[in-house]
Amino acid sequence: MDKMRNKHKYSLFFILGVLIGAMIGTIVINILVSYRIDSYIKEIKSLRKVIEEKDTRLEKLQQNINNKKIIVNDIQVEIKYEDDKTEDDIVKITLEKHIKNKFKCMLGKEVKNVDGEMLVEVIDKRIMKIDGKEYQIKVKRIMISQVIKFWIEIKVIKE
Question: What ranges do the domains of the chain cover?
């Protein structure tokens, strides 16, 4: 009888060990796969943003191809967090995309007709919500030439 109990005890420990090992293995694989998926999502969003920018730029440039005037060819956005602890690349990509969408109508316009103060007023101190968090945008500098370049600082308001 005691031998029977010992055999059941050892087989129970073996089965529990296999189950616990399988659960730990599943958790580790899940963590590794989710990290890879997050990096792929970030890369896909970045590439989609680049494609949209190139398409918009190409359309505007084709409209003004025969003009000999200096026109706006591109819009660039440099985003920096107010505190470096909260950096999130997906949020940066999304904010950059939204800001460029605000100014895509400027592509193809003559540089002399672009009003810098108006550009700053459009996005300065604006609050944007992304994934339930609120971010306040502050324009630090702007450069207007064939490329309109914004240097922007963002601050997390509500997490």
Answer: 31-158
